[in-house]
Structure formats: structure tokens, C-alpha cells
Design brief:
The protein has about 160 residues and is α+β, with helices and mostly antiparallel strands. It contains five helices and six strands, in the order ααββββββααα.
Length: about 160
């Protein structure tokens, strides 16, 4: 009889969530997984009537000077609901980094951004050259026939 009591006390102690005198837990808390969210999303998309669009290699979303790029995404669309679903792993890049490959994708809205980028590059190019010339002004010119050692010896005497 003594053995069973000890066993019961161990089991009862493991069930308590608080200290002595607290209420026992009635049932174990069940955590929901993220797959339920995905299932709900897919059922909502089916209700809207989206269809998968195959063979899309790349999707670019333009936002000011930043481009969100999806490589080999899963694309679904519902023209009637004006809804496009792009799923995959996104990469955020600057517009100037991927510019040569996406010029044909730019619309009239982004041509203004392209002009601004070109103006910024033109401003930076002359500015960089002027900054180098200013740095050269801080370094004294070399005088023929003088060395650093001779100038140091003259300063000590």
C-alpha cells in the first residue's frame, strides 16, 4: 500500500501547473500548426476561383528604388476578382543592381525612377572626382632635393 501512495504522489505532482494548493490542469493545451493557416488560405483562393499560371520564371515587384524579386515562383491568378497570388522565396534588391536585365519590364511609372537614378549617377560621378582632388590638396607637394630625414634633423636642431 505504501508503494502505491508514493507512485500516486509522483503522478499527481507532475500534473500540477502551480505550487501546493493550486488547481490541476483539466486537459493538455493543444498548439495549432501553421498548416491550418495554409489550408484556410488555399480554400479561400479556391472560393475566389484562382487558376495556376505555369512556366513563369521570374516575378519582379517594383517599389520606389527597391525591387522584390521572386525566382521560379508559383503564380495563381483570378482575373474576375483582380487577384494575383505570387508565392515563393523573395529577394529584395536595389533597382540599379538588376537594371540591365529588367529594362524591358519597366513601365511608364518606373521610367521616372530610371531618370532619377541616371541623374544620381551623373551627380555622383563628377562629385567623386572632385573629392579625390580635394584629398590631394591636403598632402604637401614634394620639393626636389629635400628628404623627410633632412626636415626632421632641421626640426630637432
Amino acid at each position: 500500500m505504501q508503494m502505491n501512495r508514493e507512485k500516486l504522489m509522483k503522478m499527481a505532482g507532475a500534473v500540477r501547473t502551480g505550487g501546493k494548493g493550486s488547481v490541476r490542469r483539466k486537459k493538455k493545451a493543444v498548439h495549432k500548426t501553421t498548416t491550418t493557416d495554409d489550408k484556410r488560405l488555399q480554400s479561400t483562393l479556391k472560393r475566389i476561383g484562382v487558376n495556376a499560371i505555369p512556366a513563369i520564371e521570374e516575378v519582379n515587384i517594383f517599389k520606389d528604388d527597391v525591387v522584390i524579386q521572386f525566382v521560379n515562383p508559383k503564380v495563381q491568378a483570378s482575373i474576375a476578382a483582380n487577384t494575383w497570388v505570387v508565392s515563393g522565396s523573395p529577394q529584395t534588391k536595389k533597382l540599379q543592381d538588376i537594371l540591365p536585365g529588367i529594362i524591358n519590364q519597366l513601365g511608364p511609372d518606373n521610367l521616372d525612377n530610371l531618370r532619377r537614378l541616371a541623374e544620381q549617377f551623373q551627380k555622383q560621378a563628377p562629385g567623386a572626382g572632385a573629392a579625390q582632388e580635394d584629398d590631394d590638396d591636403e598632402v604637401p607637394d614634394l620639393v626636389a632635393g629635400e628628404t623627410f630625414e633632412a626636415a626632421a634633423n632641421d626640426g630637432q636642431t
